Amino acid sequence: MSSADLAHERDLAQQGAAARKGDLAPERDGPRDTGLDDASLDRRLARTWRTPPGIIGALSSVDHKIVARRYLITAFVFLCLAGLSAVAMRIQLSGPERGLIGPDRYNQLFTMHGVTMMFLFAVPIVQATGIYLVPLMVGTRNIAFPRLNAFSFWIYLSGGLFAWVSFALDMAPDVGWFSYVPLSGPEFGPGKRSDVWAQMITYTEVSSLAVAVATIVTVLKQRAPGMSLDKIPLYVWAMLVTSFVIVFAMPAVMITSTFLILDRLVGTHIFNPAEGGDVLLFQHLFWFFGHPEVYIIFLPATGMVSSVIAAFARRPVFGYLGMVLALIAVGFLSFGLWVHHMFATGLPKLGASFFTASSMLIAIPSGLQIFCWLATLWDGRPIIRTPLLFVFGFFFTFVAGGLTGVMLASVPLDLQVHDTYFVVAHFHYVLIGGSVFPLLGATYFWFPKITGRMMSERLGRWHFWFAFIGFNAAFFPMHIVGLWGMPRRVYTYPVELGWGNINLFITAGAVVLFLSFVLFTINLVYSASSGAPAGDNPWNAGTLEWATSSPPPSYNFARIPVVTHAEPLWAERDTLPVATGLRVDARELVISTVAEAHPDVREKSAPPSIWPLFAALAVGATFLYSIFSPWAVVWGAGPIAITLVGWFWPKGDPEDEE
Fold first, then answer.
1. Among candidates 232, 14, 21, which has minimal Cα distance to 133?
2. Which long-range contacts (CB under 8 A, 24 or more apart) does 545-549 make?
3. How big, in percent rounded to 5, are the helix, strand and coil portions of the chain?
4. Which of these, 100, 104, 202, 397, has the minimum number of CB atoms within 10 Å of its CB?
5. Residue (of 67, 63, 104, 110) closest to 90 by Cα position
6. CA distance 650 to 315
7. In 3D, which of 500, 656, 567 has the Cα closest to residue 231?
């Protein structure tokens, strides 16, 4: 790219309306989008970026939108399975000394519920939302490393199927979603149940790390011309911070699961104190991941809330810089909280005091975001629709969960309520209130973008009130029964303790919450087929994902937009500035500089390939076989190498040869 072209693009990004088109690169062999009318350009790009027909073509797709839809549907199925397991547990606990579910099956149920919600639903669905929206929001045609992105889904699907098939075969893990040693160790955990937990963790974390890497590169290097760091949408900032947290946190839990399976299958003694190991090392490694995991789930939800509030308040979110710094601060501070899960393990008092302080400190940037959102609503003219109702529900439930979190940061109180239903109530208020409520609001908000149809407003309002009332009826009384001393992870309790009536009320609330998701499912299915046509931008929002059609074409944008404002569709109400110069017969992307998003080079995006699926099958089979023999790592290396060679083998593209 010549310096004149680069200077022209800089001027275009700054001046916006002064010019409507700019040339990204000097003329090259092959047709470009310059001079083509809209209809011809759409036809050429649709042919270049299409997913091949047939079953092989579908399995080969690397379109970020197709991969994201697969993630979303799969995660929703796992949510239903986790919800059914929760309802089964609540029915068992609805009265004292019930015998509907035995202790062994109950142990598997609460473990699978936690594992599914944390590893198979919460993290994958927020990442899937990012896979779909981030490329659209930053104005590019596909996610970075699209084959790696496709590979991540197949690995995730393999891990989820592995876990639930194990449950059907009575081999599911039964020692909690955190699988503490020594209960999960070789002495107290015979059979393969703990091995299933260890390898399922590996499946899902490989998947999450792959998505995180692709998201980071997309945000930093594929932004539309002019989208400097101070013009990135807050949702994209949230996904960027989340992806960095994943990169630094998730290797810890992968190390934990690997050490556990080595102790169980190879005979190492990493967690065996009798042979010089350390049981508490497991908890330190696990919770170094486990508490950032909460913010991996929560941070994308804050980005969703920012997008919804800006659209319905009809103004940009108040305090943009403060919001960005708060996101970064939360991501950074999340690594300094893990020991507050271990206050009952006999830690030094000075160390416990430090983690008490850091656990309270993280409430400051979280509170700052709450006040910025409230200021935005106060200064705007809010339009009350279903997405905004779920944001209001988020305010109430998350603040309540945050208050009990500050309480649990106090060592004396934590020691009294540790492993009681008070803690269960707290983390459900944080996770459901802080993540699921924003996610539901985001579903109503972006459903028109994904499907081109509106969800039913009437069913949406019924859904909200059933969910809000059912959630609080189910989980608020758990604070009370926890203070009465009811421990977690018990499958029944004696009549004499007097917990029967309150548990019956909790179960009734859980049923109402479950019915709210039945309404949600009906709304999804009905609206996807019969909902009112949405148009391109039904909410009159200001970010780039609404600058293209709903649903978007395979290439996202016929011409790459040029960004002049943090809310470009509000700043450029007549015609959005665009840049031209990309090939129409090859999958080309604009690669921009990190800080100012000046166009740098044109780069090819990988075409569809079946090899990511084959690689996932080889890796998944290796993980599966490894729970029976450590030699699986050796025997699986060959098939994995073959699939990687096929994945990266040069295809002799004429442009590459030139």
1. 232
2. 545/133, 545/136, 545/137, 545/446, 545/449, 546/449, 547/139, 547/576, 548/136, 549/452
3. 70, 5, 30
4. 104
5. 110
6. 49
7. 567
What Å distances lie between residue 382 and 225, 374, 376, 545, 635, CA to CA? 31, 11, 9, 21, 60
* Residue 389 pLDDT > 70: yes
Whether 419 and 487 have beta carbons less than 8 Å apart is answered as yes
CB 68 within 8 A of CB 75: no
Q: Contact 620/639 with Cβ under 8 angstroms?
A: no
Examine residue 182 and say whether the peptide bond preceding it is cis (omega within 30 degrees of 0).
yes
Q: Is 651 exposed, middle or buried (0-12, 13-18, 19+ CB in 10 A)?
A: exposed
Distance of CA 545 to the CA centre of its chain: 18
pLDDT of residue 656: 46
Token readout for 66 is 């197709």
Taking the CA atoms of 9, 588, 20 and 571 in sequence, report the sign of the dihedral they define.
negative
Mean pLDDT in residue range 607-615: 95
For residue 489, with 0-12 CB atoms within 10 Å meaning exposed, 13-18 middle and 19 or more buried, which class applies?
middle
For residues 317 and 588, give the distance between their C-alpha atoms in angstroms, rounded to a whole number.
Answer: 33
Question: Residue 74's closest CA among 178, 171, 164?
Answer: 164
pLDDT at residue 21 in the model: 40
Residue 310 and residue 318: Cα distance in Å, rounded?
9
Question: Tokens 């979110």 correspond to what residue?
Answer: 317
Rounded Cα gap, residues 609 and 588, in angstroms: 17
Residue 58, strand partner residues:
none
Which residues make beta-bridge pairs with 608? none
> What is the SS3 string spanning 84-133?
HHHHHHHHHCCCCCCCCCCHHHHHHHHHHHHHHHHHHHHHHHHHHHHHHH
Reference 107, options 79, 120, 88; nearest CA is: 88
The pLDDT of residue 11: 45
Q: Report pLDDT digits (tens) over 13-43.
A: 443 333 334 456 554 556 777 778 889 999 9
Nearest in space to 500 (alpha carbons), one of 524, 512, 484: 484
Q: 0.90 exceeded by the pTM?
A: yes
The DSSP symbol for 141 reads S
Query: What is the SS3 assignment for 277?
Result: coil
Task: State how far the Cα of 613 lies from the Cα of 610, in Å rounded to an integer.
Answer: 6
Contact at 8 Å (CB) between 421 and 485?
no
- 486: which 2 tokens? 């009811």
Which residues sit opposite 23 in a β-bridge? Answer: 580
CA angle 14, 19, 20 (to 5 degrees): 110
Tokens of 128: 């899937």
Residue 227 pairs in a beta bridge with none
Burial label for 600, CB within 10 Å (0-12, 13-18, 19+), is middle
514: Cβ–Cβ under 8 A, 6 or more apart, which residues? 83, 86, 87, 470
What is the tens place of the pLDDT at every residue in 243-258?
Answer: 999 999 999 999 999 9
